[in-house]
Amino acid sequence: MDAAASNPATVPEQRSGSASDLVVLGLGYVGLPLAAEAVSAGLKVTGFDVSARVVDGLNNAVSHIDDLSSEDVNTMLDKGFSATTDPACLATARTIVICVPTPLSPEGGPDLGAVTSASKAVAAHMSPGTLVILESTTYPGTTEEVVRPLLEESGLVAGSDFRLAFSPERIDPGNQTFGVANTPKVVGGLTEECGEAAAAFYENFVNTVVRTRGTREAEMAKLLENTYRHVNIALVNEMAVFCQELGVDLWDSISAAATKPFGFQAFYPGPGVGGHCIPIDPNYLSYKVKTLGYPFRFVELAQEINGRMPSYVTQRAQELLNDSGLALSRSKVLLLGVTYKADIADQRESPARPVARKLAAKGATLTYHDPHVESWEVDGVNVPRSTDLEQALAEADLTVLLTDHGEYRPKLLNEYARLLLDTRGVLRRPDPDEAAEVPAQFRRRADREGIQVL
Question: Residue ranges of the UDP-glucose/GDP-mannose dehydrogenase C-terminal domain (predicted)?
Answer without folding.
Answer: 334-429
